[in-house]
Amino acid sequence: MTADRRELRRHTPVARVLLRAADLLHRSTTRVQEAAADLDHILAGQPITLVPALDRAFRDAGLHHDLGLAFLDLRAPDLERIERLGAATSGALGVASLVRDGRAREAAVVRLAHRVDRLGTAFLINRLNDYVGPVGGLAWTGLQPRLTARHAALVVRCLPLIDRMSEWVRAGVDQRRALQQVVRSPAARPALWDSLRDRDLALMRAAARVLVSLHRGQPEIRDVLAAALGRRDQQLRIWAAQLAFDPAVTPSSVLQELAPKLSADRNPAVRVAGARGFAARDDRDALVRATFDPHGLVRHHARILLAGKFGAIDYRGRALAVLAEPDAARTALVGALANLSEFGRRPDIPLVAAFVADARPSVAREAQRTLELLERLP
């Protein structure tokens, strides 16, 4: 690894935690207190999935070597000292629950049981997969008082970890089910809806999946899908689009309502769902516009839907009309040129050639592609 890459690696959230955790063993009271406060601050600003990532990192010899660290030799008596200094925050105790020494992990879990907050709950859930059975048992004991309506929102905040329990070999199936029951309870609904707006994308995804399962076929599905479609994550938007035209999940009225949002998405797979929505609400004009989408996948599906509902149109004539418009938008020009690549004739070559030198790169590229195809025609 180069020096530059090694320096960049030191600034990742995992590295920042490892580097700061080393000061939990410092002789200076002030350094220990500052380290504990910093750990809380770092962890509070990160997705909850950082917890299992840290669990792996604290056993990663290569990472420790790159950071110039030894494994954190934190022992149970050290936790008592940290607490006496008033620095036993959930972050410091959570870090202690990840170290190699089993007694230290046990001592940390016992103390985390009294930390009824997001970090404390997350580190306890993570320890359900501990390779020492009694430590996992203590973690479950610490979690059980939280399996109530009063703490449902807290459990929801750790939903991505609950989902990951299906991949853990040591966490019990009954434990996961008990946590899931809390998440699916009426008391958890407000927290689930709030999570759709959370910056933690993993939490948002997990909450959206739960809400979809709770509201299949109901109008509430609209708000779940709209929230997913409003995020930058491409896979999340594609997931929402697929559900949007699944009649077992999304009522037709909701698909119709979401059609404009779907059709405006930058991903063509999502725009296909928009075309389906326009077809469902018998919007011929919107379907025609979709047949001039810059992407072939959208055009293909839109043409099928248009033909099935209203009959085909003169794609070539419409494309030529668009190219003749002096103020046509970039996307309209690209769609028109693309249609001529499929329906054009040799007499269209001069008009298409005029756009090869267009100042807009996407228009010029599509014109060049279309021109090459038209020149092959007999």
Show the helix and strand layout.
Blueprint: H1 3-9, H2 13-21, H3 29-44, H4 50-57, H5 61-67, H6 76-84, H7 90-96, H8 102-112, H9 118-127, H10 133-143, H11 152-156, H12 159-164, H13 173-183, H14 189-195, H15 201-214, H16 221-229, H17 234-244, H18 252-263, H19 268-280, H20 284-290, H21 296-309, H22 315-324, H23 330-343, H24 349-353, H25 361-374
Helix pairs in contact: 2-3, 2-4, 6-8, 7-8, 7-9, 8-10, 9-10, 14-15, 15-16, 16-17, 16-18, 17-19, 18-19, 19-20, 19-21, 20-21, 22-23, 23-25
What does this structure look like?
The protein starts with a helix and ends with a helix. It is mainly alpha-helical. The chain is elongated. The model has no long low-confidence stretch (mean pLDDT 93). Among the domains are: 1-146, no CATH class; 315-378. It contains 25 helices and no strands. The longest helix has 16 residues, at 29-44. The protein has helices at 3-9, 13-21, 29-44, 50-57, 61-67, 76-84, 90-96, 102-112, 118-127, 133-143, 152-156, 159-164, 173-183, 189-195, 201-214, 221-229, 234-244, 252-263, 268-280, 284-290, 296-309, 315-324, 330-343, 349-353, 361-374. Helix 7 (90-96) packs parallel to helix 9, helix 14 (189-195) packs across helix 15 and helix 16 packs parallel to helix 18 (252-263).
Radius of gyration: 28 Å
- Which spans of ≥5 residues are poorly predicted at pLDDT below 50? none
How many distinct helices? 25
Shape: elongated
Please give the share of residues in helix.
55-70%
Residue-averaged pLDDT: 93
Report the sheet with the most strands, covering strand number, pairing sense and barrel closure. Answer: none
Q: N-to-C terminal Cα separation, in Å? A: 57 Å
The counted number of beta strands is 0
SSE order, as H and E?
HHHHHHHHHHHHHHHHHHHHHHHHH
Fraction in beta strands: under 5%
Helix and strand composition category? mainly alpha
